[in-house]
Amino acid sequence: VSDGREQNGSTWERWRLLAGDNVRLTLGKRFGEALDVSWELNAAKSSYDYANNALAGYGVHNLRATYRPQEGALEGTEIRLGVENLFSKDYQTSLSAKEAPGRTLKLTLAKTF
Fold first, then answer.
1. 18-61 pLDDT tens trace
2. Distance CA 31, CA 20 (A)
3. Strands across the sheet with 77-84, in order?
4. Among candidates 23, 20, 21, which has minimal Cα distance to 48?
5. What value, to the nearest 5°, has the Cα angle with vertex 47 and ends 44 and 51?
């Protein structure tokens, strides 16, 4: 939780570039050394953007899975799959000039050698 004020002439107003209050909660489970899955909630209360326009609060759900084969040709490889903004919620963070993107799917392949 944060707060800030700026002087506008003879009055003090809320600081326009103050990040909104938010919280992240991540719950996950590891299945041996090979599989790791997690769910994340990123939530923020209502706030204001840089132009002092009111922004609604939001809650965005993300899912992630990481698979690390322990033997064979893919040993040392890490495969990550993530879905951000699972329900494609329309929202805007307090420090952004535009809405966040909708549902985003990410696939990553990494190799350690």
1. 677 889 999 999 999 999 999 999 999 888 877 778 889 999 99
2. 36
3. 22-31, 35-44, 58-67, 77-84, 104-111
4. 20
5. 135
